[in-house]
Amino acid sequence: MTKSVGVIGGGQLARMMIAPARALGIDIKVLAESEGSPAQAAATQVGDYKDLDTVLQFAKTVDVITFDHEHVPLHILEHLEAEGFVVEPSSKALRFAQNKLNMRDKLTQLGVPCPDWAKVSTAEELDAFIESHGGVAILKTPTGGYDGKGVKVVRSSADATDWLNGNSLLVEEKVNFVRELAQLSARNRSGEWSSWDLVETIQKDGVCAEVNSPAPNANFELASQIAKTIAEGLDVTGVLAIEMFETADGRLLVNELAMRPHNSGHFSIEGSVTSQFEQHIRAVSGMPLGDTSPLKSYSVMLNLLGPNDANDFGLVDRELDGASIHVYSKAPRVGRKMGHITAISNESLADARQIATRVFKGLQA
Q: What is the pLDDT of residues 314-323, one digit of tens each?
């Protein structure tokens, strides 16, 4: 029986795993990058997750290793597994979350709908793709990008001279989408799988600003089918978040993957019987999955983005005027996710949004 879970990374996702882990009777420990991290309440070790000896020392203190982010080098995870440590999700799954070229190749093999894409490493290859896709494309670095980083719109190779240094890049068609969606699901060690309702995500300057659950007028069956295909095809253990584009003709195209709790699932803390954080702990610990049913019909989550969405980011988590405020104890900077507000309602998404917005504006006052 799993008695302890170790989370690599001390960010807000690790922070929000602490309470549900303890409620399940699981001892949770965190390897944080620095002192005073958002997950400092469970940070039993501070060190560099890119250092093998540091990670090995941490792994010896827990029954299973999981993650707050996807950035632990694969060779370290493979070494842990070779030494007999349990890593969930495994290095074999995480290689697809860490590298977008690996992801696109595997999803294409699985028949999952994706934007048209190619691997390019020269100006000539990039220009040929752009020319064959209407004179514009999206160029991405295979590793390291998030929240709009590592992504640029290109109309010729001249727009990417700083990136075209001989390394392989991912180029994709510029999808004419009508909205962005996210499908969260979870799979445990024995292969049990469950999902939450498909949600709509609304971006602000490349960063998620609002999440609406459930997504209005969406193809829930198709999104769920895509998620299950990916979870099983990549052998994912834990929460899997899939960011999707919806096109005007109703197609769903997979944009990004994350094999951990995700910003688009924060609503589930108040909005679902089982939150994504409890479900992740259940899944990586080998426990049965929990019920993902909504507690009320509608949920709206608003992100607090630095530096100006609230006067005092030192606020403790609390309930206020019908909404729930979560703060991450992070130093503010422009566009940084500093916390979030969730409101749930049985009336409508508009009602839930009105409640959340009223509290949001109160923090700005």
A: 567 888 899 9
